[in-house]
Amino acid sequence: MCVFIAAFLFGCGGGSRQNQNTTTAVSESASEKKVAPQCLCFPVDTARLNRAYRELCEDPGSLERQKDFFYAFPSTSMEFFISNYCFMISKNNSTIYPYVNAFRTMLPLIPDTIYCDKLINLCIGGKWDADALCNVPGCLQHHVRDVMSQKPQVMFSRLSKQTRGFQLRFWQFYWSSLHKVDNAAQCQRLKNMFIRTMPDEVKIMEIGCEFATEEFEMHHPYSDFPHLEFPRKKDRSMYVF
Question: Looking at beta carbons, which pairs linking 55-64 to residues 24 or more positions away fall under 8 Å?
Fold first, then answer.
């Protein structure tokens, strides 16, 4: 069954603090009702994903089965997050891990350009976290780094089709970390490969590496909702203007 997740926008007002922190799942039939302007609905069809996954496991060499699973798999970071959340609150208390592994290893017949386009879109706006959601975003980050290492030409070529803002958001997820990692060396290798052919894309990559490495505390519960953090500040002098 397709479900819709109603998520409050950053600037929505009214309601209690509990309501502002709550993500509400409603059925498809309920989605036909009038939705308040401060809410957004994200369709997540976990039933389709489950079915496509089972059929792929039954016949992994089938192009049609691979295509069905590829298109059933989440296409954005928000869909990815919500799908994993839906699995976590299900009766089985599972995660999206098995589906991520299938996305990583069971789709060899999907063309590289199409596959990399989807992978890039999955990472744009993504958030790495050492603890949250059993580090499923970390699993995705490892995968995109592997693909970048194996197919850098395809990844950079497809990434260049994105706007500069989306490219930066991709690299923020790609380089994000809360501990020391060998980002500088990898960044330099990619720079050496593409500085002559794609200087603008390399510049964006370097900016992302500079500011995302050990800088973005993406695990912070209020990082996505700064308006909830404001009342917690004891010293509000920084907000005086």
Answer: 56/102, 56/106, 57/102, 60/106, 63/109
Bridge partners of 4? Answer: 26, 43
Distance (Å, whole) CA 23 – CA 8 = 8
For the chain of 241 residues, list the mean pLDDT of each consecutive stretch of 10: 43 38 38 44 78 96 97 91 78 76 96 97 81 62 94 97 96 82 90 97 95 61 49 49 45
Tokens of 132: 């949250």
Residue type at 30 in one-letter notation: A
Distance in angstroms (rounded) separating the CA atoms of residues 172 and 204: 10
| Residue 13 phi, psi (nearest 5) | -120, 170
Q: Give the integer Cα–Cα distance in Å for 240 and 229.
A: 16
Measured over the CA atoms of residue 165, residue 168, residue 170 and residue 172, the dihedral's sign is: negative
* β-pairing verdict for 39-44 and 24-27: unpaired
Whether the CB-CB separation of 136 and 84 falls below 8 Å is answered with yes
Token match 């603008």: residue? 200
Q: Is residue 106 a contact partner of residue 66, using CB atoms and an 8 Å limit?
A: yes
Q: Is 137 exposed, middle or buried (0-12, 13-18, 19+ CB in 10 A)?
A: buried
Tell me phi and psi for residue 8, to 5 degrees: -75, 140
* Lookup: tokens for 221: 């519960």
Rounded-to-integer distance, Cα 5 and Cα 40, Å: 8
Rounded to 5°, angle at Cα 50 from 45 and 53: 125
CA–CA dist 136, 127 (Å, integer): 10
